[in-house]
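Predict both folds.
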Amino acid sequence: MQLYFNKCLSESLSCSSRLSASDYKYSQQALLDIRKSKDYCALDTTTESFIKELGLLRQPAATPTATMTAAPTKRRRKRCARKQKRGKRGGIRARLAASPSRPAIPSIILANVRSLDNKMDHIRLLRSANRTVSNCCVLVFTETWLNDNIPDSAVQLEQLTCYRADRAHGNGCKQRGGGVCVYIRDAWCQDAMVVCRHCSPLAKFMIIKCRPFYLPREFTAVLLIAAYIPPTSSSSDRNAALNELYQAISEQQTAHPDGFAIVAGDFNHANLKTVLPKLYQHVNFPTREKNTLDLVYTSLKGAYKASPLPHIGLSDHLTVMLMPA
């Protein structure tokens, strides 16, 4: 077989002067049969290079050079460039967490603290440990037990403006107890003013008119009413306290017919819907033992969703947190 191959090679070399490499024709099957035979041996380097010059060996496929430009690829957009992240949750709670200072209606925390002066450390700890509480727009505290001897600096909280309505001495009022206090977050509203303060043996309340920068067009103002009605066993006293509160709220609603009214406080079994049936109550769980005493009324049905928080210090009332729903 080797002699046969050498003979074929000598014949091809003799014809190389008469035929070019492109004109030479050979049988591929014959070459494959030679390679599969047992007498086949590999060509030496000289013979292989000579055959390559004749074009009898197949050249390897050419690799793409560096000068060849690759197909244009679509540039991937960065995650920070997307308006909404993939898999991001929607809804009012997600929007409120993303922009806590721009809600349509303010988030509220309501608590009966029973002496605000000795609960300041607990409130600061709660705000530092809970981000939702820290971003809350309005904090309403009842039974503050504050008086003229306690300055505003003693009950001041960071990034919040304090509005007090202490229990006045005289006129049948007790020396200790009662009083309401409202904190408004500066990032939510800086245009706020107290339009009414009322203190009597039957009811203590304060009305604050707020004009936040981000306010829906449906509302001209937000009316915050913090109220405290002392516990009494007489139904006539409760009705008289509700009538005092009704007169003050009706006066503000007449002055601001498109205002959003929020009435929050400790009512002690007094039902505000008996005098203001168009208001809606949002707290649906007990706040002191088995009784629901701390209530929040608004002029919009389903405006809030209430959830309980732990007691502040040694207070026997649960803290109520209301998020816009």
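Second protein follows, with its predicted structure tokens after the sequence.
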Amino acid sequence: MMTPTVCSRSPKALLSFTTNTATSILPCSNKKSTHIDRLPPLQEFIDNVVQKSQLPPCVCLVSLIYLQRLKTKLPPHARGDGDTPYRLFLAAILTASKFLSETGTALTCQSITEVTNFVYSPKDINHMERSFLGLIKYDLYVDVQGIRDYLALHGNLLEMDLIEAAMEP
């Protein structure tokens, strides 16, 4: 039996790609939202969240697949606020973490609130997650072939690999 593992050769490449993905999903206004004044630049924010929550590369990769799905499902006239890329990133990692969790170790609304230094409340995070799920129409399933396909398109930029190792019976 083969067990696939996602490996990142460069956390900086993953960070840069994730930042670019989150900012390119939809046009966002420069209008100040209630949270934007308390947020660092997006790349710093993403780096802090990934480090503090110790996100495995697979969760990051599945969240990128979800963000790509979202982009294809949004209406052409969709627009966001200044903190929309932050919200989309948080909703994607929360959803991916829950989808991939088998042991109850998934991120929670409370844990995300804590790693974001309480910029967003658990209620805010919960709302982001529900909205995100509705926008992607609960299209959560990602299999190994989906990961292979995504890495075939973006693996060089991401500097990520899928390693399939034989498991002992």
